[in-house]
Design brief:
Helix content is 76%, strand content 0%. Helix 1 (7-19) crosses helix 2 (24-36) and helix 1 (7-19) runs parallel beside helix 3 (38-58). The chain is mostly helical. The structure holds zinc ion. Residues 7, 10, 33, 37, 39-40 line the site of zinc ion.
Amino acid sequence: MNLLYSCQKVAELVSQGMDEPLGRLDRLRLRMHISMCDNCRNVGQQMLRVRELSAHLFAPDSALDDIDRP
Ligand SMILES: [Zn+2]
């Protein structure tokens, strides 16, 4: 089967992985792709940065985070 994800699939998984834990295989494939793909490495870093910024801007409290984490 296809061992490597497409860039689009990687972007989906990076976004998904911010909301919920990814499976071990997904994370492995993500890491493999990102290790070889400068584009996705940049995209991933930008998404993390946007998330950090938006967390500060739009989350006056951490109620949403508390729901996700037991
Ligand atoms: Zn890529």
